[in-house]
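Q: I'm writing up a methods section and want to include an example of the input and output format. Could you take the sequence below and give the corresponding predicted structure tokens, formatted cleanly so I can copy it straight into the document?
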Amino acid sequence: MSARLHGVMVALALIGCATSAACGPAASDGVHDSPPPSADGRAGVPAVGANPAGGDAGAPEAAAVPTTSTGKRGFPEAGPWTSFYGPVAAADVARIASAFRIINLDADPNAQNVTKEQLETLRGSGKNRVISYLNLGACETYRDYYATAPAGFESCMSSGALTTVYSTEYPDEQWANLSNVAYRKLMVEHVAQQLWDQGIDGFFLDNMEVVEHGADAAQGPCDDSCAQGGLDLVWELRQRFPDALIVMQNATSEVTRNGMTHGVPYPIVLDGISHEEVYTDGADATSRDEMLAWKALGLKVNGRPFWLAAEDYVGACAAESKPDALAIEARANADGLSSYVTDASGSQTAPCFW
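A: Here is the clean output for your methods example:
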């Protein structure tokens, strides 16, 4: 075992303990609470970079990562799970809640995809976990905070963080330089807070692969400062929302697997990872290798297995696609990953019920 891997395991053992008398009593899974009040009395709103354990802001000590004494971190069940970003159809709420134990959707209140009442139903009296899409690595032009600055914050544009257009396929997004403090403040204290206030259980972080791009990338250049800023951004998210489930999509290379933030191994701020196109026809083989490397870490959060998920695509949520979907699911499960198969990366407007 390498020294760095040993550091991951030791730190995780310190803060990711199983629920016990030593860690404190577990909270009821059926109750959604806000993070504990900060020093100024506001619920769950320590300033970005603050150290909840005391001392200087951003002090590099393991105690700065909140413990899991409430028992809320970690996924009780690995699946079935689903991911979709369109409006939640009223007729499907009960079916979704029954079919899936982990539900990833877009809870942005301005998008009006889901109501607070629907979110509570989807949580299934505590048996399910509902997390929301949160694009950290890029900013979409259709978000209300893209060009308009919320009170007390910069917008994506005015922060100066935005770099290049995401791609010709997705021209309505721009990559961000994650070393930009104003952008990180916007993402953590405004965007994530709005999502949390909806009543979700955590966040599904998208486009974090920007930290892997390098300084010379044609799209989304990200130098060492930017890459470290990305890891620190997720650390800041953990400080503000100590009980939240945090899942990172993609970005599973050694940049994150071996990364450090504020003196602690980066993996310990997460509850799980998901990767797209691990088993899809034509998928990059490195995605499976990277997921298996994370699996080999043997991580646990609050005594629960670190969530390892794969999201693959078969073109349509239709009967003729079911054999391919089931074959992909079998391959993922054989590798120990929780599989969800859907139509296409740029679609995902509704869940697929296989």
